[in-house]
Amino acid sequence: MTTQDPPRFDTHQTDSAHLVLREKIPFCHPGYREPRNTLLVLPRVDPATTSLFGIHHRTALVACQIIANNAFETGHFTLDKDGQQRVDVAPDGQYPVVPSFRDWEFLRARIPGPWSQIPIEFPPAMGRCAVTNFSICLEDAHLIPKEEAIWYTRNGMNLYGEDLGDIDGSSNLVPLRSDIHKCFDNRWLAIVPKVTGTEVATTTTSSPQYVTHIFSSRASEYWPTYHNTRVQCLKTHSPPYIFARFAWTVLLHVKPFITSGDSRHIIRLHVSSDAEGTRMEQKAEFPSGAELKNSYGGERSKNATPRKRSAVGSTADDGNFIEAGDSSDSSVDGTSGMI
Fold first, then answer.
1. Residue from 65, 95, 40 nearest 266 by CA
2. What is the C-alpha separation between 190 and 247, in angstroms, rounded?
């Protein structure tokens, strides 16, 4: 007895090469000279026209405002260093930048819209990935990573969740398929609000929605399918944790600027203890390039994370941290951006 020949076996094709080959968009600090003034470099993931790609304006703007120490009221993009060609004029001089997530301060009252205005429409779905809707290979991903437990406590993040609001609380968790979880923890992918019907072409309404945003060309194979995908299974109290996670993702990208060997104007967190308890204060400083490399470099570090110091009152990381970047649980087009 004979049977028909089996169907042709094909390999799965993706359009990832297009993302890898696109020139990235640099966002530059107007207070420093080229070419050592690049604060942030992001891939062109959002279509501007049928043939041109850029990046979602609000996502890029808020990222740069976070780096500029939460400059949500004053930070803007310009096409030139002098701030004359405004994209929406940048502050003059070497305004300070935040060198690491652990130096960054979470300010709930200043979270920019629409980050603080999006209602959570999706009821919690049991046993499904929030991005892919798969029911297999699921893991609970922390929005604020477990290795940032001290930052979590210092910034009072327990106030925004349900029940005790600890770092393992449900408001700080989102179910993800294991590979998506890895991309999330590698900072290749973030959750951001975008307006549907314009920036997210798969829906017809005009209200903001939480969607995925590819932050690295290393996730190029995920871009055709999982960029601008609506994120489900979020909890009502999750938005503050989503915004903090976005800052955690963004502030990795400032490391090359901080550790380039040049002196930089930065905002650094100082922690000291006395009889009245722990005191935290952010101070503007001009460390030398060598000091910045020593404090925020490190051959193995994947993040611009301050190293522990012995002096009381200096930038301190109490206790031993898991190395940042390890798994925590298991359109501007054709221009440089200035803020």
1. 95
2. 10
Asked whether the beta carbons of 321 and 301 are under 8 A apart, the reply is no
Pairing mode, strands 25-28 and 337-338: parallel
pLDDT per residue of the chain (339 residues) written in tens, 0 to 9: 555 666 665 544 556 667 778 889 999 999 999 999 999 999 999 987 767 889 999 999 999 999 999 999 875 555 555 555 555 544 457 889 999 999 999 998 889 888 877 777 656 556 899 999 999 999 999 999 999 999 999 999 999 988 788 999 999 999 999 999 999 999 999 999 998 654 444 444 567 889 999 999 999 999 999 999 999 888 889 999 999 999 999 999 999 999 999 999 999 999 888 888 788 899 999 999 999 999 999 654 455 556 554 333 333 333 322 233 444 564 444 334 434
Non-local (6+) Cβ contacts of 119 within 8 A are: none
Q: Tokens 């120490």 label which residue?
A: 69
Terminal CA-CA length for the chain: 74
* Amino acid occupying residue 209: Q
Distance from C-alpha of 82 to C-alpha of 256, rounded to nearest angstrom: 23
For residue 12, give both structure tokens: 């799965």
Q: Sign of torsion, CA 61 67 72 75?
A: negative
Whole-model pTM above 0.85?
no
Give the domain ranges of the chain.
24-255+326-332
Token pair in block for residue 124: 């919690």
